[in-house]
Amino acid sequence: MDDDPAAVDDYIAAFPPNVQARLEAVRAAIREAVPEASEGISYGIPTFSVNGRYLVYLAGWKRHISLYPIPDGSAALEEELAPYRAGKGTLQFPIGKPVPEGLVSRVVGALLERRRGQAGTVA
Known about the structure:
Layout: H1 5-13, H2 17-33, E1 38-42, E2 45-50, E3 53-60, E4 64-68, H3 75-81, E5 91-94, H4 101-116
Antiparallel strand pairs: 1-2, 2-3, 3-4, 4-5
Helix pairs in contact: 2-4
C-alpha cells in the first residue's frame, strides 16, 4: 500500500465537486473513528490501515460512494445499514443524499473492534 495521503487527495480530486464532497465526508468520518489510521491507495482506491493491515476501503463512483468491508453487527446496526447495503460486504451512499457520517464512524469503529478482537457491538 502507498502510505501517501496525497495519493488519496489526488484520487478524490479526479472526481466532480459533488462526488469530492461526499468522498471527503466519508473520509472525515473514517478519520474521526480511527484517527491513527494511515491512508494510501490499494487496488486503485483509498485504503485506511491500522498497524500495516487494511481496515476499510473507500471508492467513488458516478452515482454513489462505496465503503467496504462491512462488519457483522448487532440487529440495530444491521437495521441501520439495510438501506445502504449493496451486497454482503459493501455499503453504497447515493450522490445527492447526505452521507450518514455517524453511521460510517460506527461501521469503521466496529471493524476496528473486530480487528482488535474485542467483544461487544457498536450500536
